[in-house]
Amino acid sequence: MLKKKILKYFGFPTLIIVCLSAVFIFQTNSGLIGKVKSGAEISDAGKLKIIFFDVGQGDSSLIFTPAGKKILVDGGPDNAIVQKLGEVLPFYDKKIDAIILSHPHADHVGGLPEVLKRYEVGKIYMTGVLHTAPDYLEFLNLIKEKNIPVEKISSVHDEKIENNLDFKYLYPDKDLAGQKMENLNNSSIVFKLIYVSTTALFMSDFENEEIFVSSSGVKSDILKVGHHGSTNANDKIFLKVVSPIYVVIQVGLNNSFGHPHFKTLYYLKQLGVKLFRTDQDGDVEFISDGQKWSYN
Questions:
Q1: Is 187 found in the same domain as 125?
Q2: Number of folded domains that form the chain
């Protein structure tokens, strides 16, 4: 009886609108739409955000630029990244402006094929180094199928992303496209994000850090350490040169590799940094207003 009265008073189309509005309000208030602000909302505040995702034993980070662009750095080992993106982006937002694939090891490229299937991706940055693992080959096939523009990183250079935001590519310093690497980790793209006077250094799995120790160009506020805190990377001298305030180790809980290595943790403790580990802290978020970083 009550249903008939409501229909008579409002009409069926109006009732549908009311119901849908109620569902939307419930989802927004309960956090189902997303845990963080969208790129556009961050843009309104004139701030930059980096989320270092907890994707298990692997790397994946999402950068929201002040102008609202979204840049995904690596995709972790599996489809966990798809869930992470669904948590931080509104359900209707299916665009990623760029993906940076640092190198094609499975724990960096594994989740990217599914990302390409579900999202409209504007551009891919990669080295094009030779590797025949299935996840990487699928990734390359999808790029070709979807006709996504690719830029090969093959030199040290700066790229202006937008006003006051630059990426300084520090490695590779030569063309690696089509080349077979004895140590694929050392084909990794290393870059420094510079937003006004705040900085973040992304080391991926790069291990050959001695090439940077005589350069002041790697000094950064935030360091995403190399190779999940492995002792093959994270040399004591290199860490001093970077002299970070904050350090992020993206690593899987109880992983079989023993990452992060106790030496790395000891060196970082000596530096007195604020340390975050995704196996212990989950997703780590940093926000910059151009002058300083805040985190949660």
A1: yes
A2: 2
